[in-house]
Amino acid sequence: MHPESDAFPRALDAAAESANAWLAALDDRPIPPRAGADEVKDALGRELADDATDPEDVVRALAAAVEPGLMGMPSARFYGWVIGGTQPAALAADWLVSAWDQNTALRAVTPGVIAAEELAGEWILDLLGLPAGADVGFVTGATVANFTCLAAARDAVLRDVGWDSSIQGLAGGPRVRVIVGAERHDTVDHAVRMLGLGAPVVVPADDQGRIDVAALEAELAVDHGPTIVVLQAGNLHSGAFDDFGAAIDLAHLGGAWVHVDGAFGLWAAASPRSRPLVAHVERADSWATDAHKTLSVPYDCGIAIVADPAALRAAMGMTATYLSRTASTDHADPHDRVPELSRRARGVPTYAALRAMGRDGVTALVDRLTDAATALAAGLSRLAGVEVLNDVVFTQVCVACADDTATDAWADALRADGVAFASSSHWHGRSVLRFSVSNWGTDAGQVERTLTAAASALARV
C-alpha cells in the first residue's frame, strides 16, 4: 500500500522544525539531560497501540518526549569523552543519506554515494599525509576501526609465518603477540579480545602516557613470532603522542605490524603547527581515526586505514554469487574494507564536511581546537587550588584540586550548573576533571564562558 502523497513532506518538515529548535537552543540550554530514561519512556508511551498513527504526529510526539532526555553534546561547551559537534553541511548530508537509503556495499550498484565516500577517503589520506595507495573503510566508530585494522594485522602476521587463519582458524596456530603501552585506550583491548588474541602484552608508558620505547625494544627482543605493535596518536588524558619514528623503526626491524590508534589525535597531521606531533606516523601499517570527533561530523563515522589494500581485503572481503561485484581491480567494493555487508553511506557526511571547509578550513579547525585547549588550561591554572596535570600539546586538558574530594565536588557542581560539561576520570592515582576540546564551534568566546562557569562552580565548593 502506497503511503499518502504528503506523508513524507509533513513528517520531514516536522523533523526539520524540531531539529532547528534543538540546534537553536543549544547555546543557552543546560547541557545535562532534564529527564531520565524511565521518564522519557513514560512520555513516549509504554504500550504499542493497535491502530496506526500519522507519521507527522509520531515525529512531533517523539521530539517532544525525547528532548528533555537529551544531553547537549553538540554544544560548543561540551568537553566530555572526546565528542565533537556536527557541522551544518555534514548534518544535512547525513539527512540525505537516510533519505537516499542506499546500501553502500557494492560499487556497481550504488555508484553515487560510493563516489563521495571514495573522494572523502582520498582527501583524508592527503590531509593526514598517509600513503596514497592505502585502503580506507568507513565503519561505525574508532572501536570498530581498531578492530578492522587489527583483523588485517592479525591475518597478515600469521600469513608471514605460513599460517592461513581464514582456512585454519586460530586454534593450534602460532600465538599472535599484541604489544601496547600502559596508557592505550581500552577500545584497543576490546578489539584484541574480539579478535581472539587474548590479553595484550603491556609495556610501560611515561608520565604523559607515551609508550616507553626502550621497554618496547626489550619486549620485541623476547619473542620473534607474529607480533603487532599498537601505538597511540593522542592520549586519552594528556593528548600526548608516541614517538612514532623510533617505535616504528624498532617494530619493523623485528618484523612486527604497526597499528596507530588515532581516534582524535591523527587529525594533528592536518595542520603544519601540530604536524610535528605525528612525525613519521605515515610509516605505520594501519591507522584508526574517527570523523565524529575532531572533524565534527554526525555519529557513526569511524575510519579504518590500511597501507596494504590486499591485507585489508583478505581480512574483510567476502564473495557471493548474487552480489554484483565491481569489474575494477583498482577499486574494491566497500564491503571488502569493512566488517559489514549492509550499511548506510556513512562516508558521505565526511565528504560534505571536507568539501565545506576545504583544506585551509580543516587546518583552521585543528588549530582552533588546539588554541582553545591551550586557553582553557591557562585559565583553569589561574583558579585557586587548581593544577593542570598534563602537558597541553593538542586538545586534552586534565585538571585537579588538591584532593580527590574537592575535585569530584567541583566536577559535580560544574555539571549541575549546566553551562559547561567536562567528564571525570582517574589518572596517575588522582581524580581528574577532563576537558576534551572537540567541537568545531569552541572558540575564544566559548572558552571564556567555560572559565567563568568553572570559577563559579569552584567557588561554591
From TrEMBL:
A GO biological process held by the record = carboxylic acid metabolic process
Q: Which UniProt keywords apply?
A: Decarboxylase, Lyase, Pyridoxal phosphate
Span of the secretion signal? none
Q: Which GO terms describe its molecular function?
A: aromatic-L-amino-acid decarboxylase activity; pyridoxal phosphate binding
Which Pfam family, an example, fits this chain? Pyridoxal_deC
Domain of life of the organism encoding this protein = Bacteria
Point out residues bearing the modification N6-(pyridoxal phosphate)lysine: 293
Q: Does the record's keyword annotation contain Lyase?
A: yes
Matching entries from Gene3D superfamilies are given as: Aspartate Aminotransferase, domain 1 (3.90.1150.10), Type I PLP-dependent aspartate aminotransferase-like (Major domain) (3.40.640.10)
Q: Which cofactors are named for this entry?
A: pyridoxal 5'-phosphate
The entry assigns this protein to a family as follows: Belongs to the group II decarboxylase family.
Name of the protein this chain belongs to: Glutamate/tyrosine decarboxylase-like PLP-dependent enzyme
